[in-house]
Design a protein that fits this description.
Elements lengths: L8 E4 L7 E4 L1 H5 L1 H12 L9 E5 L2 H13 L2 E5 L9 E8 L2 E8 L8 E9 L3 H12 L3 E10 L15 E6 L1
Parallel strand pairs: 3-4, 3-7, 7-8, 8-9
Antiparallel strand pairs: 1-2, 5-6
Helix pairs in contact: 2-3
Length: about 170
C-alpha cells in the first residue's frame, strides 16, 4: 500500500446517513503523500501524454490540474450548473446519494483532442459517465480516466461506458 493511502479518512454518515465519505484532504495536506498520489495517477499517461486532463468538480480539479502541470498539458474543468461563464453543454447524472448535473464549456475541446477524465473517487460512476458524455459531444477522443480511489462495492467500473482504460491508484 502506498504511504498516502493511510492518510485517507472514512467519515461515516456524510453527506447523508448511510454514506461513508472518503476524505482525501489529509493526502493533499501531506507534501509527500500528494506528490506520490499524483505520480501514481500520472504513470499510465507518461508515455502518451493527452492533450488535456478533464477535472470533475470539485476534488477532480485538484488532481487534474496537478496532472496537467506534471505532464505539461492542458486542464479543462467540468463544473456544476451556473459556474462557467460562456455557453455550455450539460449532462444529468445519478449520484450515490441523489442526482446532479455537470457542465463544460461548449468550446473547451477541439474535435479529436485526446483527453483523460479525472476524479478523486469512483463510486457509482455517474460523474465519470457525465464527463465522458460531455467530452464525446465535443468530438474529443477519451483515451482514459484516472481516479485516486475506487469503491468497488458501488460497481462504478461496471458503468464505465468506454473501451479506454480506467486507471485507479487505490482500491478503497
Amino acid at each position: 500500500m502506498p504511504h498516502w493511502s493511510s492518510l485517507i479518512r472514512d467519515i461515516p454518515d456524510f453527506p447523508k446517513p448511510g454514506i461513508v465519505f472518503k476524505d482525501i484532504t489529509p493526502v493533499l495536506a501531506d507534501a509527500r503523500g500528494f506528490a506520490d498520489a499524483i505520480d501514481a495517477m500520472a504513470a499510465p499517461w507518461r508515455d502518451a501524454v493527452p492533450d488535456a486532463f478533464i477535472g470533475i468538480e470539485s476534488r477532480g480539479f485538484i488532481f487534474a490540474a496537478a496532472l496537467a502541470h506534471a505532464l505539461g498539458t492542458g486542464f479543462v474543468p467540468v463544473r456544476k450548473p451556473g459556474k462557467l461563464p460562456a455557453r455550455t453543454l450539460s449532462h444529468d447524472y445519478a449520484l450515490e446519494y441523489g442526482s446532479d448535473r455537470l457542465e463544460m464549456h461548449a468550446d473547451a475541446l477541439p474535435p479529436g483532442a485526446r483527453v483523460v477524465l479525472v476524479d478523486d473517487v469512483l463510486a457509482t460512476g455517474g460523474t465519470l459517465r457525465a464527463a465522458l458524455s460531455l467530452a464525446r459531444r465535443q468530438g474529443a477522443a477519451v483515451v482514459g480516466a484516472a481516479v485516486l480511489v475506487e469503491l468497488p462495492e458501488l460497481e462504478g467500473r461496471a458503468r464505465w461506458d468506454s473501451d479506454a482504460p480506467l486507471h485507479v491508484a487505490l482500491q478503497g
